[in-house]
Amino acid sequence: MSTRHYEANFDGLVGPTHNYAGLSFGNVASLSNAKASSSPRSAAKQGLAKMKALHDLGLVQGVFAPHERPDIATLRRLGFTGSDSRVLEQAAQHAPAIFQAVCSASSMWTANAATVSPGADSADGKVHFTPANLTNKFHRSLEAETSGRILQAMFDNSKYFAHHTHLPDNEHFGDEGAANHTRLCSNYGHAGVEIFTFGRYAFDSSKPAPQKYPARQTFEASQAIARLHGLNDDNTVYIQQNPEVIDQGVFHNDVIAVGNQNVLFYHQQAFLDTEAKLAEIQRKFGADPVHFIAVKNHEVSVADAVQTYLFNTQLVTLPNGNMAIIAPTECQDNPRVAAYLADLVTRDTPIRQVHYFDVKQSMRNGGGPACLRLRVALNEAELAAVNPNVLMSDSLFERLNQWVDKHYRDELHVDELRDPSLLTESRSALDELTQILKLGSVYPFQR
Ligand code: SUG
């Protein structure tokens, strides 16, 4: 009897404090939308609609719970004292930049939650998870511990799942998780090639590096993850991102490339040493040819790719074996990108469909469809060991929409983040959510 294999997507549910604070230097959308009003309710619903649509396409879809924000525990670590509302008020007044950072709902971008290696690739046959330390941005560096706890609560079975502690919290080991990691394979259940893409070498300043914007992921972090996950030389490839594209706003590799099974879809300027690296991927992949789909400058410029998130699309395999691209509507609205995608599905590649989704609330912070999801390749037994309450279904979709309606504000401005009732609202929302998803006590306020 053959075992079935799946690639499940676990999407970040947008949290109740979703806002635009301009926190991410190097991320063009985050900076240009700083201080705009947000809609936490629409953001959460846009995300849920995408999850439901993928579920309806026949894919395994899961929900990744948001983090507790404002992060009072961090403010206390930073010396603010008194009641929770006093901590809020004092931080907002005396350290406004720090205060905004601890209010970010950035855990929604679960491509940055962790790096995941499936059992088919790891030495011990287990699915390995390492939460990303996200050291490059203060607001994101607050995510690693809680992401780790949520992952434990979702994949809670040591027979199948191995959980690691995030890498040392230091820029030398800056790790951005799956946003800089792609896995190619002939079948989700077969050993694949894990591609780690990094922005710079931490211990060798003679090597190329971006000049204007930060390189968030280091080579040394990528190597450490591969070691932790029990990968070997035959199934790993390390590629440096082209520093010039980082300087044009490609802060994560998933803004310029996406891969799935035997397809790597990327911009011609994405990498350094491209030809040699693609040859290495092909050699390690095996006899079957990889479809390397290079988008040329004259087809789509790097600026258009950054603005539309053409490569921050999800490339998914449908139950009939064809692939579909899950794209943000920004791609549809740009005539050059829309024309490119319309042509792509007529070519001789596995990609046959494009589905457009409105995820504008997330896009305005530089988060496209692919940022919103963490991929986990699983076999049947592993899937059966996943906490079933986090898996999307018609009833969970309905339940979560009701939950959003009950707890989320329709509009939020950064000036309202200091409102103590937002803290109370968020905590009661998350308390109820942990019961819906049966996660146990994963948040600091519950411990
Ligand atoms: O880390 N934006 C996120 C976007 C992450 C996108 N993820 C991937 N490409 N996988 C970031 O830059 C902006 C928050 C603000 O400005 O309010 C933010 O954190």
Characterise the protein shown here.
There is one protein chain. The termini are far apart. The protein has one domain (5-69, 104-446): Succinylarginine dihydrolase (L-arginine/glycine Amidinotransferase, Chain A, 5-stranded Propeller), CATH 3.75.10.20. Helix 2 runs antiparallel to helix 16 and helix 16 runs antiparallel to helix 17 (420-436). The protein is built from 17 helices and 15 strands. It is an alpha/beta fold. A hairpin with a 2-residue loop joins strand 9 and strand 10. The protein has a 3-stranded mixed β-sheet, with helices on both faces. The protein has helices spanning 28-32, 40-56, 72-77, 84-94, 96-101, 138-141, 144-154, 219-228, 243-246, 274-285, 302-308, 329-333, 335-344, 360-363, 380-384, 394-407, 420-436; strands spanning 5-12, 61-64, 114-117, 127-131, 161-163, 181-184, 193-198, 236-240, 257-260, 263-267, 291-295, 314-317, 323-328, 351-357, 373-379. It is globular. The longest helix has 17 residues, at 40-56. Bound molecules: N~2~-(3-carboxypropanoyl)-L-arginine. Residues 20-24, 27, 30, 104, 106, 109, 111-112, 137, 140, 179, 251-252, 254-255, 365-367, 371 line the site of N~2~-(3-carboxypropanoyl)-L-arginine (SUG).
